[in-house]
Batch of 4 targets.
Target 1
Amino acid sequence: MDRESCGTTKRARAILGIVTSVAVSAFACGGASDAPATPPSDQGDSTTPPPGASGSGADDSQGAPPPPSRPSPDAGSTPGPDAGPPPAPLTAAECFKDLTGPLPSPDYDQFKPTIAKSCAGTHHQDITGVQKVVFLGDSVTVGTPPTAPGDFYRVRLEAKLRQKFGAAIEVASCANWGARTNDLLAGDKQIEACFPTGIETKKTLVVMTNGGNDIHGWARDKRSTADAIAAADAALLHLKTSVEWLKSPVHFPNGSFVVFANVYEFTDTSGDLSSCPAATLAGMSGSWPDGKPALVHFEEGFMKVAVQTKTDMMFLFEHFCGHGFKRNDASLQCYRGAGAQLWFDLTCIHPTPQGHEQIALQFEKVIDGT
């Protein structure tokens, strides 16, 4: 039930996406930081980058720094009385410690999520026995030119899921260009489109990207900090309500799973809109310093929804940090080394084939629980 034939207005909004808002924001890659949640006023000019993280010094072909070494006892052995306490649970801050710097980070760990060993995302669900897969959300999930359809992340992921759960699984997509969080249950009514009777007897896995177009609207209107935080809370309520619907045993009597991503950006923490030529051509310039605290709040809210609903969030922002249009600037916190690939296409906000490959890979890890 793919809806890739939506109108040009939706597509235009998707292409603009989060270009202005996230690029001029100041939120970082990873977990908690000792820096204040609201950036000080001397960080508020248009050249201030969105907080990211200090460079790891080398590109990671998997899109994320390797997880820390966590030794385990020999199989079958029983720890002795002097073995000491078990290691502390893995945290988002530990996962992305190589992507931290002087700018503040979203504090994901305040919600006490369970983090997957791969640092791909959270691990709140044991996803097994899937009979149906549904894709929801925005143009990142729909897929956009110039990337070929066969390279879209959802097509790549579908192939992996058929290998994992069986070739006979049912697959549908109700994602749409330009979609916002309120298009899940209202607006485009994506959930209704994919589940028209309101009851699905097949055990279902829902995968989605969303939120970037919400941010664009706030930035376009240059909302005050208070108004932007209120808008973020409204969008997060749309997300949470939608996820709760998708997890309800009333609608899915045989069970369901939900995996979604947080929101990425293309400037590698530089805040340089002109680093992507299409942004300049589209007139996407200026600054929105009042929105910085709201964007931190929004990213944290995605994690809060995942924890509260016992669903899973993939660290899309963190994995793409250092693979944008300023990836070769060694002074930036997202710098991953001279060999880092560009994972954003000429639209500034949509993935290249390599970017789609990475999104599919990280979603696959979250679904596998690895």
Target 2
Amino acid sequence: MAEENTEVVETEEVDEEEQEDATFTQSEVDSHISKAVDSALKKRDKEVEERIKQERKEAESLAKLTEKEREAAKLDKQEKQLEKREQEILNKELRADAIDNLIEKDLPKEFADFVVSGDGETTLDNINAVKSAFDKAVNDRVKKSVRQETPGTSRQIKNSNSFNVDEFARENRIIK
């Protein structure tokens, strides 16, 4: 009977350890997930409402305008969208060119975001400036890590050893 009691106690200890590891029940996990989903839905609904309000304002302002003014407003809006797309395409092209130039100059392509500028010339100037600064920093670091003390002259070595042949011979009676 004593053996059965010890086995029960050991089993209870193991169960307590497992419960400490599993800190969330399924209902707690479900409630956390439902809260996250609710907050995401509220955020999305708010964004949709704001977009609808903006669209209504635009529609109201267009309704007040004459036919020619509406056409001009639509044309203006389309031009702005077209300019935005062109700028995005230009930025992508500049970034791609910058990556090519960086690879050509043996620089990490991760520098592309730092060197891209409004036009190709400025971007190339930025790449050249980064290359020179990067190379200088690497060279300085290499010099610093390779630096060592200059070796001493032969007299310094002889004196530092303090080995004298005459004394050695006298001590061993080789020379009389």
Target 3
Amino acid sequence: MKRSFALLLALGLGATAARAAGSAVSVSGAWSRPASDTAVVYATLHNSGSTPDRLIGASSSVATHVGLHQSYEMKMNGGSMSGMAMSGPMVGMKSVASIPVPAGGMTTLKPGGYHLMVDLKHAVKAGDTIPLRLHFANAGWIDTTVPVKPIQ
């Protein structure tokens, strides 16, 4: 009852929340920006259980592919590339096989960190939604809906 009330409260406040039946893993606060080719999805992955889990894949009916990625920062100590000085912090992105969700904790997919890259079949604009299926190693599949928010 308490779990159902929390879910209804979150939905009533405009947040997206999803949980597989009987699962300790849930997803909340999913969002994306308008995109023509590739959308980036952010969300918070919660694990109320005593066993760690991992996000190991994702799919969407509006995508040809959904990839798990992580942004990272690296320090450049000089040099140049095509005549441009290369010093200071630079941001990169890499594909990852999984995204950890600690037992009794959460992992936030956010700009500059973990995120999902969604190769779209068609453009999405503010007000649209992206249906998303997340595959966890232990919790299995969780379906959620990702609202596309305007660029601010």
Target 4
Amino acid sequence: MPPPRHFHPSKEGCHPPPGSRSQRPSAAVTGGVVGAACDTAAMKVLIADDHRLMLDGVKRALEEDGGFEIVGETQNGAQVLPLVGQTSPDLVVLDVRMPNMDGLQCLEEIRRRYPKVKVVMLSASTAPDLIEDALRRGASAYVLKTVDPTDLPSTLRQVAGGTVFSTIGMTESSTSSGAKAAGLTEREVAILTELASGKSNDEIAKELWVTQQTVKFHLTNVYRKLGAKNRADAVRQAYQLGLIQRPLGDE
């Protein structure tokens, strides 16, 4: 199991928000991690995602904004709770599916042990039952991995302010109209989204809490409705219809 990574604020990681005065670093100890702190504190964020590209994409979007301090990151679900205790984040960006400890389990434990810490679930899945489950367990927001990276900082600020309690990144008008035109159901669009991220049938089944046979059944219907020859062709047509977008971690 790889060790958790801690980040100490530096000149590069401790920028003031646009339009604010420059900050003077001062010594601080947070959750047992010694580092520097800004006089005007940035929002402290812990990022947990088992996909390296996605984790780096989220991290880059927040660092470029300048109003966030990345206090830790992990690709292992079992490391999430220890890191929360050690780094005392204001907010955790948490992937729904994590190895060793499921993201939804992590969410429940964070809400139970650290009720003041807000949690934003991050997922490629648009399955309504999964979104509802995450919000019911205490997530402040459910952010799709197709969200525009430039929108992520403002989304997290809204979450911190308590103004967002819904799904972020789902363009209902374009997606619904495109799906309707193609005759696709919400579940079929959800499977297409997972397909576009390169997941196997087994991985899609685990992500959406269904059997592999159910995934195959839906894929057969998707191919038929789109007139697609294979997985790659189905994904290409889904992009053209506006049903799926380029993931946040993609370049």
